[in-house]
Amino acid sequence: MDFRLGRLAVGKLPLGRLTPGRTARDVIGIVVLSLLIAMVALDFGPLPPWMAPGMALAALGIAVMCALRLRAMEFVPEVIAGDVIVPRSSRARDVKLLLPLQFLNSGTADGVIEWVAVRLTVDGDINRSVLLSPVAEVDMQRFIQAKRKLDDSAVEPFTGFPLEGKRSVAKFVLFDLAEKARNLPLSLRPGRYSFELFVKSTANRSPKLERVFEHTVEPKHVEEFAADAPVYLINYQMTLPGARREMTGAEWMPRATRYSN
Facing residues of 67 across strands? Predict the structure, then answer.
């Protein structure tokens, strides 16, 4: 993973979105107005008893406003995930996992998604959990044209990417074992598969666990994959179900799919 990408991309972000000038202007305006009111009130004699509590409430309001404004100007990335595709394999037992991911930025500041990773646990055996890293980004239209089989024309390297404020980006990311030399090859067998999706962005110094979801792989799924057919594990408990329809104009999910959840 190239961590320099995050620093370079941040240097190109528009400063206007990251500078809290509007908040500072509003705070200064409220403070000046409060002082003017206090000075005018002094001309009419001693300050009334409610003046001090009133100024304290005004200060509290300014603090709350600043907190809300600064929060709104942050880079706040989120990820919607839950579906898993096991593409047709060109080689026997060559299992890779394709995840449709929807990246959203609920803040107004721009930022960079630096990398993603998935921790896979089968049947709750955490001692055999494996880490999956992104090996490619898949063009779904070409993937469908290739009859849902991976080839060189449908994949390109997955790299970090910028995410603008109040925007979303859909990506189909292909995952494989991060350390093949230290783990057995990834295989598809019946069981309960737990997926933990981690995301590293310029909003956090360390990777953040964004989503946890599960799927049940049944014997029929193993048979379909052995017969050179793609396997679809669809999760309808994911938040914002409409996001799946917005992820791509292509119909990537067959109409006759049987859902795992």
Answer: none
